[in-house]
Amino acid sequence: MLLARLLRRVRRDDACAGSATVEFAVALPAVIAVAILCVSLIAAALTRVSLQETARQGARLAMVGMTATEVSAALGERSGTLQIATDYPHVTVTATSRARLLGLQLPGITLTETATGYLEEAIGVPQ
């Protein structure tokens, strides 16, 4: 009796022997796709934080009277594209860049951050 039960159990286990491998082969691409998506979102978030800092720094520099060329030179290549607009008494700096993943640009994802400040020369001047 005991031997018959053991043999039946062994036969059932043999029928399911490759199922774990098949389940792993089906689930692995989904896990990899989710991991790549998470890394891409983190890369986009880091780019956005960098753009925020670049726009803020650009606005600070423009508020004290630096020209657009001087601001771009001071900030270097870290910013992507900078646009500086002066609408007296305010200055607005917009930093734009493409999202990157492992050094490659992600298609269709453009990140933009804007910072606005009050021109230093306009402080104390009646409107």
Ordered list of secondary-structure elements with their pairings:
Layout: H1 2-15, H2 19-63, H3 68-75, E1 81-87, E2 90-101, E3 104-118
Antiparallel strand pairs: 1-2, 2-3
Describe this structure in words.
The chain is rod-shaped, with a radius of gyration of 29 Å. It has helices at residues 2-15, 19-63, 68-75, and strands at residues 81-87, 90-101, 104-118. The chain is an alpha+beta fold and 127 residues long. α2 packs across α3 (68-75). The protein has a three-stranded antiparallel sheet with strand order 1-2-3.
Supply the key terms:
rod-shaped; 127 residues; three-stranded antiparallel beta sheet; alpha+beta; 27% strand; 3 strands
**What order do the SSEs take from the amino end to the carboxyl end, as H and E?**
HHHEEE
Strand numbers in spatial order across the main sheet: 1-2-3
Q: How many distinct beta strands?
A: 3
Helix content: 40-55%
Cα-to-Cα separation, first versus last residue = 101 Å
Oligomer: single chain
Write a short abstract of this structure.
The chain is of the alpha+beta class and 127 residues long. It is 53% helix and 27% strand. It has three helices and three strands, in the order H-H-H-E-E-E.
